[in-house]
Write a structure and sequence with these properties.
Helix content: over 70%
Shape: globular
Order of helices and strands: HHHHHHH
Number of helices: 7
Radius of gyration: 15 Å
Structural class: mainly alpha
Strand content: under 5%
Number of strands: 0
Distance between the termini: 6 Å
Length: 160
């Protein structure tokens, strides 16, 4: 049973994801920065769909827009699409082996990145390029370790 006193763990992981999202990196490495916040939101949507849903993801997306100083609504819309895709298939995703989950993370975060690319190119901020989905690849490569780490923290603190 989920104990309500452990919401702090969710917010702590989101805070850590936010910090990892804004740490300055060299330009060549920043192109491949994993979508930390998208992975964290996706994990909690998969694990606790009864507590965290589409509205939660949309709010986190708005916070990301403010934090990153991008067009208001860009990450909110992308996070909303990520949340709907995750929520629609969370029952199956939870049962998949880790390698299949990783592939689905690649697809869903790729969709997230393409939504951000579409919005940025529509307003003229960047030229469309497939290099923009590189964070989806690095996120998928990190997903197994992140998932195992967060699952162990969840079990340690009794969040079921």
């Amino acid at each position: 049973m989920y104990r309500t006193g452990h919401h702090w763990l969710v917010w702590l992981t989101l805070l850590l994801a936010a910090v990892l999202s804004i740490i300055p990196l060299p330009p060549w490495l920043a192109l491949a920065r994993p979508a930390w916040m998208a992975m964290a939101v996706m994990f909690w949507l998969l694990v606790l769909p009864q507590n965290y849903g589409v509205f939660f993801a949309w709010c986190i997306g708005l916070l990301m827009d403010v934090m990153l100083g991008v067009v208001l609504g860009q990450n909110a819309i992308a996070m909303l699409i990520l949340a709907m895709a995750t929520h629609k298939s969370y029952r199956r995703l939870r049962l998949y082996p880790l390698w299949q989950q990783t592939f689905m993370v690649l697809m869903i975060i790729g969709l997230y990145q393409l939504t951000c690319l579409w919005i940025n190119s529509a307003i003229g901020h960047i030229q469309p390029s497939l290099i923009y989905v590189l964070p989806a690849v690095t996120s998928a490569l990190l997903w197994p370790w992140l998932s195992l780490l967060l699952h162990s923290l969840r079990r340690r603190f009794g969040i079921v």
